[in-house]
Design a protein that fits this description.
A four-stranded mixed sheet has the order 2-1-3-4, with helices on one face. A hairpin with a 2-residue loop joins strand 3 and strand 4. The protein is α+β, with helices and mostly antiparallel strands and 206 residues long. It is built from eight helices and four strands, in the order βαβαββαααααα. The radius of gyration is 17 Å and the shape is globular.
Length: 206
């Protein structure tokens, strides 16, 4: 039997992992879901930076949401949640996952860090709010490419729902949260499709 511990907090990228676990039909132990989880020594032993999400799967620590989601999907091949290893479709999974994590998400995260008025993420005196305009430009540029890809298909890989969409959907939801989705009809329709799934953990901001 697979034993899974997930260190999570609802608004964080751990939502990807929780959604994947629900789609996979796997039981897991949730640890966290309070702000105190960030100061937990247990978390710091699992993630070297003490960040969320982190997981322990059959006694082995794993961090980074995309890595955790991919590993979970591979645990249940019968659920067909991810393209098979070694196939071109699996390469496309890696492509789109890396695309959203490198071409969109860093800019959204940078803006959040530098415009957090409470100074929880970064002290106010260290913030550079002016960078938000540049971040918006680069995030939108990547969103154009993603929107174009989804004009003629409903999902990213093999035109069926997979963990690739769980990982990407969180980022698209983030675009919506910060008001950058209005000019992207294909991405909006995509997010609507994902949100209609029974186990979707995305929080909509519209």
């Amino acid at each position: 039997m697979t034993e899974i511990i997930l260190y999570e907090l609802k608004p964080t990228r751990s939502a990807r992992c929780r959604w994947t676990l629900l789609e996979a039909g796997l039981k897991y132990e949730s640890r966290g879901n309070t702000i105190e989880v960030f100061s937990s020594q247990e978390l710091k032993q699992t993630h070297p930076l003490g960040k969320l999400p982190a997981a322990v799967i059959n006694g082995k620590p794993l961090f980074e949401s995309a890595a955790i989601c991919t590993a979970i999907a591979d645990l249940v091949p019968e659920q067909n949640l991810i393209a098979k290893s070694g196939t071109w479709a699996r390469a496309l999974h890696d492509q789109w996952t890396l695309f959203v994590l490198t071409e969109i998400e860093p800019y959204l995260w940078s803006t959040e860090l530098n415009t957090d008025k409470n100074g929880f993420l970064l002290p106010n005196e260290e913030q550079v709010p002016a960078i938000a305009d540049q971040n918006r430009k680069f995030a939108q540029r990547a969103a154009v490419a993603l929107d174009a890809h989804l004009q003629n298909q409903e999902y990213l890989v093999e035109n069926r729902f997979t963990v690739t969409d769980i990982i990407t959907g969180y980022t698209v939801g983030w675009l919506e949260e910060v008001g950058l989705l209005e000019s992207f009809p294909s991405l909006t329709a995509y997010l609507n499709r994902l949100s209609s799934r029974q186990h979707c953990t995305l929080t909509r901001h519209n």
